[in-house]
Amino acid sequence: MDEENKNINENPSAGSGQFVQKDLDELKTKCEEYLNGWKRERADFLNYKKDEMERISQLVKYANEELILKIIPILDNFYLAEKHIPENNEFKDGFTQIKKQLYDFLSKEGIEAIKTIGEKFDPNTMEAVEEIVVSPTYNNPGTVAKEVQRGYTMHGKVIRPAKVRVTK
Asked: What UniProt keywords apply to this chain's record, in alphabetical order (predicted)?
């Protein structure tokens, strides 16, 4: 038997071509398996990379949310104080300008006030604090009649719901 193996190793044509072809086919199959596995792993990695980039962009997009939530009460106080300034007061112009600058800053950060008065009550963006009796002005039940506190969205996401009074 050693002589037979020696003959095959020394002279491949002396051995059976069928054994060589079988080994070659097995190696091709393994090569294809490894290549397909590599392709799947590459695709998985690219998908992971894309998902991570999306997650990071969302993180950056909403990174200022906590800061904005601290600034919004200041804007609320500007709106409240503005109601009590006499019309002919020079102070009102400067006060209004500061409020406008603050509002413009928030707008650039993607902050928008939620439109409420006269709108149908939406529990996704509003919080009902009281139901009021239907009046001639608002004779449609479920309509927002008064805004108690403004609500805001940041890039379409509600960061503070509006507190409203709704008609019965």
From this structure: Chaperone, Cytoplasm, Stress response
